[in-house]
Amino acid sequence: MNRSIQALESGWKWAVQTARLCCGVPDYDAYVKHLREHHPEREVPSYKEFFRERQVARYKGGGGRCC
């Protein structure tokens, strides 16, 4: 593959990961890798389940923000 295309793909992946982290959504692939390496007995959630759990963890009650 062409180096410039590889650089663009790498930059895009980095930008997407950064945007997700800024919004409080960790990298799903890194999460799956961690689960498989350190918690093989646990079931790996689907991306949809993972995303929902992250939303709940970030926005659940506790005297937090409204906006």
Automatic annotation (TrEMBL):
Species, as recorded: Rhodanobacter panaciterrae
PANTHER family, A to Z: CYTOPLASMIC PROTEIN, CYTOPLASMIC PROTEIN-RELATED
Origin organism lineage: Bacteria, Pseudomonadati, Pseudomonadota, Gammaproteobacteria, Lysobacterales
UniProt protein name: YbdD/YjiX family protein
Recorded superkingdom: Bacteria
Listed InterPro entries: Sel_put
